[in-house]
Specification:
Largest sheet: 11 strands, antiparallel
Organism: Paenibacillus mangrovi
CATH architecture of one domain: Distorted Sandwich
Structural class: alpha+beta
Keywords: Glycosyltransferase, Hydrolase, Transferase
InterPro entries: 6-hairpin_glycosidase_sf, 6hp_glycosidase-like_sf, Gal_mutarotase_sf_dom, GH65_N, Glyco_hydro_65_C, Glyco_hydro_65_M, Glyco_hydro_65_N, Malt_Pase/Glycosyl_Hdrlase
Shape: globular
Distance between the termini: 42 Å
Bound molecules: beta-D-glucopyranose
Pfam family, one: Glyco_hydro_65N
Radius of gyration: 27 Å
Number of strands: 32
Family: Belongs to the glycosyl hydrolase 65 family.
Strand content: 15-25%
Helix content: 25-40%
Length: 780
């Protein structure tokens, strides 16, 4: 269904992909993977004409609202602006009647433009050419542009277009807005003002339509309609054969949470601003506005310039796809907002952020645009308030980060009820919000990672130390003393593998908690000499003197599971005793979660079946604590028991395979990761793209194939590009210097404009250089 060739525009080779046939039964795929956005807002790519099964979504980052006490807060689905109803000779246009030729719906990643074009032949035998274009501006983050061109090819048609702002939307039924205020100014400008029901965030949407026939501007008199939660303009026109009608629709989106708008909290000034900017956009016109968007994207692509020479041209496209979506979903403009597990491309996971950000996506920013990584970590700093509350509510101290987070101060927002239990017919309880606790040390790890790679001392002084200390305090209060075994344990948790609930001593959780405690101790000692003033300030806020002793004692006494005689580390206390199930039938499925058609989660809990990388994740994050043979043995043990039902799984497996020098496997797993969203599976992305997996794709290439690692504060490189690749080149920031790496099978070249001497370790050998380095690799 998707073609990865640049069908109509060869210059977009490896920059675009195309849907070549419309399938009304699988609309979710293209709606998500072709979604548009700019970090401020995200627009799902539903078609202009309506079909059953379409999901229209417009999200503005950070505008969370809670429908009622029985639901958790979520990103509200704002009014729709994309639907355009076309009546051709009095009949509603739909691809479900008549016949279609030359169909192509393309996402152009380079310019972030969605296009759709085809020739449609009506049941009456009239052929009409239709072309649609759409973008969400990276230049003006509040702007959406749409263009539509209609040309009857054989005979004239009478055409009626109805388009407007439709707030009869919901999030799967939950309505997040008050009815609001609707107004049409000068028979031209539509404006809708709505406020979210609980958080009282004002949304102001303004839209206008403009028309041209064969390039000449025309004024079409509208029929205006205002209904409940909806306003619409209908325009009628007669078109002769060969004449082209062009409609441009421009939309401005603002909310009272806008941080770039002066006085956004003042509704009067917001509505005036919205209307004024809309008028200005109208005077500029789609083409020029689109050019400005194009330029903004061009400078982003300059910054993230990758080159891959591969026998498979898809590889570079897949990487660009991943980077495109990371640009589209990341709120670089506002530190009060995070990255949703589905970005801004669908209702899945309600716009909430998970460890996906810190462990899967953040590395991309740390090494490509450190200021954005910093903003994302500041979001977690703001989240300390909710994390402290969660700790208190659960009887702990310090900061216990929520498993799912929305507005930073909200605290825990994980929903409580999930999918059907096939045995009982009831909904399965989601335990992650209560007991998936590794997120706290994942965040501490991310702070450390950022600091090591950037040396950003100011961030640490302002935010980082506080986060590390208070998370360590949480772990110290969380550990349980086992008298018999004479050790501290962490019982009753879920580790990264969510198919094992209520387990004791999940190795990942215990090791990462230990890491968190040790890190706090290290920084505490360092600050004593480096910045006693800051330490004393933090001490009075966080009682560090009191807690440091506890960190020490608990870090020394925590149980860290060791390998058995086969070299296997138990994922948790009971995993290795559970029944083994032959997963062959499930592993070959294209859909995830098929195991649950045969077993309930309770039953799966009693089997050696994993959803995703768990202990293998630990080997990646705390790499130099484990020997290579041990990693391989555990990989061979756990991978056959892993269904990769979470999109977070393949990339970690691929990186580890690169570490074992199994290039073929690493490449295969990289391809599996790229196929999660971009592959042929028709329903894999219905609820939205998979943010973590996209970060994971970048990591497969940079951390896996290029072997980039930060170890003990040093930058290590150990490239092993796949057999099918001839060359890989990309930018990488290290401690403030921008390095450009160029890797072939035998050579590594690094250039930098930085005047600083760069120190790194290549294939285990310490190297220093300024300006340029050429390194002949010996592949050890
Ligand atoms: C995974 C989690 C992940 C979440 C959001 C779940 O299916 O098991 O690890 O954080 O999805 O992507």
């Amino acid at each position: 269904m998707l073609s990865y060739d640049a069908i109509q525009r060869p210059e977009l080779d490896q920059w675009s992909f195309t849907e070549t046939e419309f399938n009304p039964l699988a609309q979710g795929k293209c709606e998500s993977v072709m979604s548009l956005g700019n970090g401020y807002m995200g627009l799902r790519s539903a078609t202009e004409e309506a079909y059953i099964g379409a999901t229209r979504n417009l999200f503005v980052n950070g505008t969370f609202n809670r429908f009622d006490d029985f639901e958790v807060t979520e990103l509200p689905n704002a009014a729709d602006v994309t639907q355009v109803e076309l009546l051709i000779d009095g009949k509603r246009f739909t691809l479900e009647t008549g016949s279609v030729t030359d169909y192509a719906r393309t996402l152009n990643l380079r310019d972030a433009e969605l296009t759709r074009s085809f020739v449609w032949e009506s049941d009456q035998g009239k052929r009409i050419r239709l072309e649609f274009r759409r973008f969400v501006s990276m230049h003006d983050r509040h702007l959406i542009g749409m263009k539509l061109q209609i040309t009857p090819l054989d005979e004239g048609i009478s055409l009626r277009l109805a388009s407007g702002i439709n707030a009869q939307m919901s999030n799967s039924g939950s309505q997040h807005f008050h009815e609001g205020e609707k107004r049409i100014f000068d028979k031209k400008y539509l404006q809708l003002i709505q406020t979210t029901t609980e958080t009282k965030v004002d949304f102001v949407l303004s839209a206008q339509h403009q028309f041209w026939i064969d390039g000449t501007a025309v004024e079409l008199a509208p029929q205006m309609e205002i209904e409940r939660r909806k306003m619409e303009m209908a325009y009628s026109v007669e078109l002769k054969a060969g004449q082209t009608l062009e409609m441009q629709k421009l939309i401005q989106v603002h909310t009272s949470r806008d941080s770039d708008v002066h006085d956004a909290g003042n509704l009067e000034s917001l509505r005036t601003r919205s209307l004024e900017t809309l008028k200005k956009s109208g005077a500029t016109g789609y083409d020029r506005l689109f050019e400005q968007n194009q330029q903004a994207w061009a400078s982003l692509w300059d910054r993230y310039h990758f080159e891959i020479e591969s026998a498979n041209r898809f590889d570079l496209l897949a990487l660009r796809f991943a980077i495109y979506h990371m640009m589209v979903m990341t709120p670089v403009h506002d530190r009060r907002m995070g990255i949703g597990a589905k970005g801004l491309s669908g209702e899945g996971y309600k716009g909430h952020s998970f460890w996906d950000t810190e462990i899967f996506i953040l590395p991309f920013f740390i090494y490509s645009e450190p200021e954005v990584a910093r903003t994302l970590l500041e979001y977690r700093y703001l989240g300390l308030e909710g994390a402290r509350r969660k700790a208190k509510e659960n009887g702990y101290e310090g900061a216990m980060y929520p498993w799912e987070v929305a507005w930073p101060s909200d605290g825990e927002v994980t929903p409580v009820w999930g999918a059907v239990d096939i045995v009982t017919g009831k909904q399965t309880k989601i335990w992650s919000g209560f007991i998936e606790q590794h997120i706290t040390s994942d965040i501490a790890y991310a702070v450390w990672h950022y600091y090591q790679a950037t040396g950003d001392q100011k961030f640490m002084d302002d935010y980082g130390y506080e986060m590390i200390f208070d998370t360590a305090t949480f772990w110290a209060s969380r550990l349980e003393w086992d008298e018999e075994a004479s050790r501290y344990e962490i019982n009753e948790v879920i580790g990264p593998d969510e198919y094992k609930e209520h387990v004791d001593n999940n190795a990942f959780t215990n090791y990462m908690a230990h890491f968190n405690l040790q890190l706090a101790l290290q920084y505490y000692d360092e600050l004593k000499t480096r910045n006693p003033q800051l330490l004393s300030h933090l001490d009075s806020a966080l009682s560090l003197q009191h807690y440091a002793q506890e960190w020490q004692e608990k870090a020394a006494g925590i149980y860290l599971p060791k390998p058995d005689e086969r070299g296997i580390i138990a994922q948790d206390d009971t995993y290795l005793e559970k029944r083994i199930l032959d997963l062959t039938p499930y592993k070959s499925q294209t859909k995830v979660g098929t195991l649950f058609q045969d077993y309930s989660l309770d039953q799966v809990n009693e089997m050696q079946v994993s959803k995703q990388a768990d202990i293998l994740m630990l080997f990646y994050l705390l790499e130099n604590r484990f020997a290579p043979e041990l990693k391989r043995a555990n990989y061979d043990y756990y991978e056959p028991k892993t269904l990769h039902d979470s999109s977070l799984s393949f990339s970690t497996h691929s990186i580890l395979a690169s570490d074992f020098d199994d290039k073929k496997l690493a490449y295969e797993l990289f391809r599996r990761a790229t196929e999660i969203d971009l592959g042929p599976h028709e329903h894999s992305s219905d609820a939205g793209i998979h943010s973590a997996s996209l970060g994971g794709i970048w990591q497969c290439v940079v951390m896996g194939f290029a072997g980039v690692r930060m170890l003990d504060g040093e930058l290590h490189l150990h490239p092993k590009i796949p057999g099918k690749w001839q060359r890989l080149s990309f930018p990488l920031y290290w401690k403030g210097s921008l390095l450009k790496l160029n890797i072939t099978k035998d050579q590594l070249q690094i250039t930098t404009d930085s005047k600083d001497e760069i120190h790194l370790v290549i294939e285990g050998k310490k190297v220093s250089f300024t300006g340029q380095l050429q390194f002949e690799m010996i592949h050890i």
